Amino acid sequence: MKNTINNSNTNLILLHPFIQKQGNPNRLWLIALISVSALASLMTVIYTRELFHTTTTTRIATTVDHQQQRLPKSVMKALVHYAANANSTDHMSQTDIEQVTDVLKQCTSPCNFLVFGLTRETLLWNALNHYGRTVFIDENRYHAAYMEEKHPEIEAYDVQYTTKISELNELVTSVREQAHNECRPVQNLLFSDCKIGLNDLPNQLYELDWDVILVDGPRGYWPEGPGSISAIFTAAVLARSKKGGNHKTHVFVHNYMREVERVSSEEFLCKENLIKSKKDLLAHFVVERVAEESGGNQFCHNHPTATS
């Protein structure tokens, strides 16, 4: 404190020490309230986003699940096709279809299914093996192209057959003579010159391990027709030459009652591999894989005698 004294007047000057002013308690409460409110708002935003994400994910999953429950387009097309052709007589019997279907149902997915012949059952076979690969081989390139254009889900290839039904016995004899060389049971047919072997298919088809093979073509109702001897021989070699997958291949031969189908099947697929022959229309063979180093040059243990 400093004192100043004047003669006429006395003025008193007091110097007080500075004292810091304390904060208002109401102000502190206001700040705390704002902070809590902001935190609550932030938590609400986070929760809302999580709820939206969960709801959206659930809706997407539900939509996908519903889509998976729908019939595949190939199945729908097959059903429509057969409904429209219910009165047709040019088709495989229900009993024969069920035999092939039973094997396809037991086939490990993805199942490799090779079909010789484009027939009325084409869409059905493709639909039944929806989750596998089904390949069709036909002698008519125009029909194969037409089917692929009309049904893009179909995989079809054309092949040139050089055999004739009238030459059946000569062809069988020729294969027997070349069984240790060009017509051996285990080989890659892509590099084969066997007269009845199909070596002009797409390269990739020779590398596939076929689980099921159906021979329902080519046509064979007249002496100059190609018949199915090449298809049956090729099926027999493909089954024995598998590198992986199931060591057994199911081979079906339709129209087994006809001479060329019966003789060719007994020669290359073998009676000891015959599982069932229903009403002589559809024959079911199970052919096992054979190691190439085994050196076997015979298709069957006991060769049948070719017809004369």
From TrEMBL:
One Gene Ontology term from the biological process aspect of the record? xylan biosynthetic process
Q: Which InterPro entries match?
A: IRX15/GXM/AGM
Q: How does it sit in the membrane?
A: Single-pass membrane protein
Localisation per UniProt entry? Golgi apparatus membrane
Pfam families cross-referenced by the UniProt entry: IRX15_IRX15L_GXM
Parts of the chain that traverse the membrane: 28-47
NCBIfam families in UniProt = A_thal_3515 (TIGR01627)
What is the protein name for this chain? Polysaccharide biosynthesis domain-containing protein
Species source reads: Tagetes erecta
